[in-house]
Design brief:
Blueprint: H1 7-47, H2 54-83, H3 88-101, H4 107-121, E1 130-135, E2 138-148, E3 152-156, E4 162-166, E5 172-175, E6 181-190, H5 195-209, E7 221-229, E8 232-241, H6 246-263, H7 280-285
Antiparallel strand pairs: 1-2, 1-5, 2-3, 3-4, 6-8, 7-8
Length: 286
């Protein structure tokens, strides 16, 4: 009781509390400054057109900022414990024993971090890429990468669903955003049409108008007749577009081609159905 009334004791405790608060404030300011420096560095790197895309830089910024934040807070916690004369070394030794006890349970966490490190090192995908993540041949998620960390990756699917995937289960990645997309556009015309004439009309149209579709990389290539089915001649056109733009480009080009062929008097084929009528009453009478 006498010690509790000792003003020196309370002054010491108060000083340690103030010191701890000061360390936390400095840590917050330091994290903010360092994160800003990291962001500005990669922003300048992107402007100078050094190696690395904007998406790659953004991914590295997020990972580095998270790593710096975790490290600084770990140091702060150790310093605060030291201020209050808590045995940090003993706590760390005890944590080592506990860690050994739960080591088998933490194997998946270690695997996640190691896999995340290699995903980052090998530049398998970046924030904003459209990817398909597989595990042993089974698709676990497909969509746009919203964020990437050393432990987990967040992917938004086609319908807005959010997949949070531990990196450890990702052993196959299909990245649709790295290279130009290729789309095959089939045009069905009546088999009675002059196919050479149709191809010449398409070739002339592409020479003049292909650049009106902003997502196209090169002039569409006519691959020619692919087959005849149900009275329809199928002419195939190959489109090369910017990554992940082939869906919209194919729809727009199909509409433009249809309208142009109609203007030139070429009929787009419609599936035909042969209907035969039988006189059931007559058959019954016989």
């Amino acid at each position: 009781m006498l010690e509790l009334k000792n003003p020196d004791l309370w002054m010491g405790i108060g000083g340690r509390i103030l010191a701890a608060i000061a360390i936390i404030v400095v840590a917050l300011i330091g994290i903010k400054i360092i994160n800003r420096v990291i962001g500005n560095f990669f922003k300048a790197k992107g402007k100078s057109r050094l190696k690395g895309t904007d998406k790659r830089n953004q991914t590295l910024v997020n990972v580095l900022q998270n790593a710096v934040t975790v490290f600084i807070w770990f140091v702060v916690i150790m310093m605060v414990l030291e201020f209050f004369n808590l045995p940090v070394r003993t706590l760390l030794a005890g944590a080592g024993v506990v860690g050994l006890a739960i080591g088998f349970g933490a194997q998946s966490l270690v695997k996640d971090i190691i896999t995340g490190f290699f995903i980052l090192l090998e530049n398998q995908f970046d924030k904003g890429d459209f990817v398909r993540a597989n595990t042993s041949g089974t698709t676990v998620a497909e969509g746009e990468v919203l964020s990437f960390g050393l432990r987990a990756t967040r992917i938004q699917g086609w319908e807005g669903e959010l997949f949070i995937i531990p990196n450890g289960i990702i052993n196959e990645v299909v990245n649709f955003s790295r290279y130009n997309a290729i789309s095959m556009l089939d045009i069905n015309v009546a088999v009675e049409e002059d196919l050479n004439k149709v191809e010449n009309i398409l070739e002339s149209y592409f020479k003049v108008h292909w650049q009106e579709e902003d997502t196209l990389i090169t002039k569409p290539e006519i691959l020619g007749l692919q087959g005849i089915q149900n009275g329809e001649a199928i002419i195939r056109v190959m489109l090369e577009t910017q990554p992940m733009e082939h869906f919209g480009a194919t729809r727009r080009m199909r509409k433009a081609i249809k309208n142009h062929l109609l203007e030139k008097g070429i009929q787009i084929s419609v599936p035909k159905m042969d209907i035969q009528q039988f006189d059931v009453t007559k058959n019954k009478g016989e």
